[in-house]
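Question (not urgent): is this output format expected?
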Amino acid sequence: MQKIVLPNIDLRELEEQKRENSKERMEFIKKYAEWIKKKSNREWSSQQAKIID
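Got this back:
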């Protein structure tokens, strides 16, 4: 039977990365929401169409 070797994971470092990722995601969402508020429906919907298509 083959022995499984698990990687050495620093849980504190992983938690810090999780917090940082969450912070970056929220900053992006806020900036995107502000951009949508400033642009016309036609402009931001055409940008969405480019992403989707």
